[in-house]
């Protein structure tokens, strides 16, 4: 009986610490949401630290290759629409194909925040994995790099053809403004 009481008592501080850490982590994630430039600069810094680590130790190319495949997969999710007409039979909700179709905003399959968060986590995990020498598999890295490059080109070609076929652009430049319909007979300003 006494053994059970001490187990739960020793687990309580750990559970409290984990709960507090989770709340604090979520708080800072929520605070970073409206600052995409700073978030991406931080992700770039984490990526550069990883690249420097791999360059310094001259190894871990298989981990880098796996990281590259994962980032490519995330990029495809970021560039793809949430409701893909090729993947699902939709109930009338699809991308507009003609000018007369109703405007529907582009909604990503993988939102920008989750894309950033996943990439940052991936680089951190890959960085931690570089400290385990058993994961440094000796390979001829130029072959991995060429294979990844071919995979990237083929995947992007397919994605760009998909964008052209269904007439969508996953990027917005500036804020869209409604200008209203101009009638053919109006001269711009009316005086009564």
UniProtKB/TrEMBL annotation:
The keyword RNA-binding does not apply. The chain crosses the membrane at residues 62-80, 115-133, 139-156. InterPro entries: Rer1. It is a multi-pass membrane protein. Keywords: Membrane, Transmembrane, Transmembrane helix. Its main location: membrane. One of its GO terms (cellular component) is endoplasmic reticulum. It comes from the Eukaryota. It is found in: Membrane. The keyword Transmembrane applies. GO terms for biological process: protein retention in ER lumen; retrograde vesicle-mediated transport, Golgi to endoplasmic reticulum. Belongs to the RER1 family. Involved in the retrieval of endoplasmic reticulum membrane proteins from the early Golgi compartment. This is Protein RER1. It comes from Quercus suber (Cork oak).
């Amino acid at each position: 009986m006494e053994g059970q009481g001490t187990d739960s008592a020793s687990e309580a501080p750990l559970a409290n610490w984990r709960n507090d850490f989770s709340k604090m982590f979520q708080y800072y994630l929520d605070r970073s949401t409206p600052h995409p430039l700073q978030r991406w600069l931080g992700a770039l810094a984490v990526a550069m630290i990883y690249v420097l680590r791999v360059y310094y130790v001259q190894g871990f190319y298989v981990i880098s290759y796996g990281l590259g495949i994962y980032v490519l997969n995330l990029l495809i999710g970021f560039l793809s629409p949430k409701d893909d007409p090729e993947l699902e039979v939709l109930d009338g909700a699809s991308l507009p194909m003609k000018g007369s179709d109703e405007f529907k905003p582009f909604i990503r399959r993988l939102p920008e925040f989750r894309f950033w968060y996943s990439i940052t986590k991936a680089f951190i995990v890959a960085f931690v994995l570089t400290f385990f020498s058993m994961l440094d598999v000796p390979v001829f890295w130029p072959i991995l790099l060429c294979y990844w490059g071919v995979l990237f080109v083929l995947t992007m070609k397919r994605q760009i053809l998909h964008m052209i076929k269904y007439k969508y652009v996953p990027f917005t430049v500036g804020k869209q403004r409604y200008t209203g319909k101009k009638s053919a007979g109006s001269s711009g300003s009316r005086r009564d």
